[in-house]
Amino acid sequence: MRKISVIGIGAGNPEHMTIQAINALNRADVLLIPLKGDEKAFLADARRDICARFLTNPACRILDYAVPVRNADGVYEDGVRDWHQAIAAIYERTLLNDLGEDETLGLLVWGDPMLYDSTLRIVDHVRAAGHVAFEMEVIPGITSVQALCAGHGIALNRIGLPVEITTGRRLAEGWPAATRDALVMLDGVQAFKTVQDPDAEIWWGAYLGTPHEILLSGRLADMAETIAQTRSRARAEHGWIMDTYLIRRPAADAEEDAA
């Protein structure tokens, strides 16, 4: 039976590749490299660099595919669903047209497949369509969350307190009610500016794990504009940006004791 190997490749540093990921890479018969246009060519080049460093299977074929553009009009969830279906069709065609019945398709996933990445959901679309049978394995990888905390030398959680991992879109709608600590990913709206707590602190990072890595931290009220300007300059220079940040508000011990 055909197989899909979903391989977490880390946050941008080729040395994030685990031995398990390298072994999975070399079991693949076909590797798919997503292309997201000239602005994000770095992402494809990083995957090719990983293949050049670690791929020792001379029979493995590397295929590129152009990632469909998501429709930003209308309902967000509908646009995402249609986008995923379009990518699923590419995976399906690759399985049917480019793989033998006992071969493996490798999908190189930025970070870890389980954290704010849709590859596993897209593979589920392929399975649900029922046009091709396959097995699947998932290889974990280092995430931008881990790279952020390592870069700043901090622990993700405070003792006894939860952390909510969310998106900029959600944070812009209001602070998560169940936590004082929020880890924010996929923030295209600079939602950190909406947090008004004067005692909140932020640890921010962009291009984590890559040669372009930027790290900034401090009191949010003091750092918000610096981060916004740094983010704008970096996006203009590189044509794209991926950033992640942790915001901590003072633990509400007094409020909890009173309750």
Automatic annotation (TrEMBL):
<keyword id="KW-0489">Methyltransferase</keyword>
<feature type="domain" description="Tetrapyrrole methylase">
    <location>
        <begin position="3"/>
        <end position="223"/>
    </location>
</feature>
<dbReference type="GO" id="GO:0032259">
    <property type="term" value="P:methylation"/>
</dbReference>
<dbReference type="GO" id="GO:0043819">
    <property type="term" value="F:precorrin-6A synthase (deacetylating) activity"/>
</dbReference>
<comment type="pathway">
    <text>Cofactor biosynthesis; adenosylcobalamin biosynthesis.</text>
</comment>
<dbReference type="InterPro" id="IPR014776">
    <property type="entry name" value="4pyrrole_Mease_sub2"/>
</dbReference>
<dbReference type="Pfam" id="PF00590">
    <property type="entry name" value="TP_methylase"/>
</dbReference>
<dbReference type="InterPro" id="IPR000878">
    <property type="entry name" value="4pyrrol_Mease"/>
</dbReference>
<dbReference type="GO" id="GO:0009236">
    <property type="term" value="P:cobalamin biosynthetic process"/>
</dbReference>
<keyword id="KW-0949">S-adenosyl-L-methionine</keyword>
<dbReference type="InterPro" id="IPR035996">
    <property type="entry name" value="4pyrrol_Methylase_sf"/>
</dbReference>
<dbReference type="InterPro" id="IPR014777">
    <property type="entry name" value="4pyrrole_Mease_sub1"/>
</dbReference>
<dbReference type="InterPro" id="IPR012797">
    <property type="entry name" value="CobF"/>
</dbReference>
<keyword id="KW-0808">Transferase</keyword>
<protein>
    <recommendedName>
        <fullName>Precorrin-6A synthase [deacetylating]</fullName>
        <ecNumber>2.1.1.152</ecNumber>
    </recommendedName>
</protein>
<keyword id="KW-0169">Cobalamin biosynthesis</keyword>
